[in-house]
Design goal:
5-stranded antiparallel sheet, mainly beta, Methanol Dehydrogenase, Chain A, single chain
């Protein structure tokens, strides 16, 4: 079974009118927003730079570029087979109107291993390449990138949590759990957990104290979020 990017349901507003939406930052590097009552496309935009498509059609669907199909001598394609995103969940904050997702911008050479005598179907795969990772904040109404926090390193596969307290929690490539300002992307706090955060952090309140829980490796970490009052 292929790995899929997580869709997010949003009860939002488009052109001043309430709409029931579904948003997805997809593995192909495009951010889509649809009206979930009728499937109509509202937004199609790139959330990382890609080159596999040559444009978008009237339905908001990317148009594949034939030159970026696997070639015998290789084709430089972005994103690579890992995708611009993967299974870790994004997050949407009604308070900021922003959609948060850990993304990877990656280039790789795609080769075709087919020949006329021994056909192997599509037969393409990628080899080598370059990548960088960042946390992206997108305006769900327009698909516009509002801020981007580049990580020192690549290969982030961490879920994201946004809170009503104007915070975003996620993992970075150096095994840190990081808190950022949800409106600006400014890093505010971090704690090294010794292993990568591959899941989405969660939060809950108990007896007047707000807790943050996240898994890293084979360990579950809990933090008490104390008030300054």
């Amino acid at each position: 079974m292929g790995r899929r990017a997580t869709p997010v349901l949003i009860d939002g507003e488009i052109d001043g009118k309430p709409r029931k939406l579904v948003a997805q930052a997809s593995r192909n590097g495009y951010f889509f927003v649809l009206d979930r009552t009728n499937g109509k496309n509202i937004v199609t935009s790139q959330f990382v730079k890609t080159n596999w498509a040559k444009g978008v059609d009237a339905k908001g669907q990317p148009i594949p570029n034939p030159a970026k199909q696997p070639q015998t001598d290789g084709a430089l394609v972005s994103p690579n087979q890992g995708g611009a995103v993967n299974w870790p969940p994004p997050s949407f904050s009604p308070a900021t109107g922003l959609f948060y997702v850990n993304a990877t911008r990656a280039y790789s050479e795609y080769y075709i291993f087919d020949d006329e005598e021994k056909p192997e179907g599509w037969g393409g795969n990628d080899r080598g390449g370059w990548s960088e990772s960042m946390l992206q904040a997108l305006d769900y109404k327009t698909g516009k990138l509002c801020w981007s926090h580049k990580w020192e390193g690549s290969g982030v596969r961490s879920g994201v949590l946004s809170t009503a307290g104007n915070l975003v929690f996620t993992g970075d490539p150096d095994n840190n759990l990081v808190a950022l300002n949800a409106k600006t992307g400014e890093p505010l706090w971090h704690a090294n957990l010794g292993s990568a955060v591959s899941n989405g952090p969660m939060t809950y309140e108990l007896d007047g104290t707000q807790y943050l829980v996240v898994g890293a490796g084979d360990t579950l970490f809990g933090f008490a979020m104390l008030s300054n009052k």
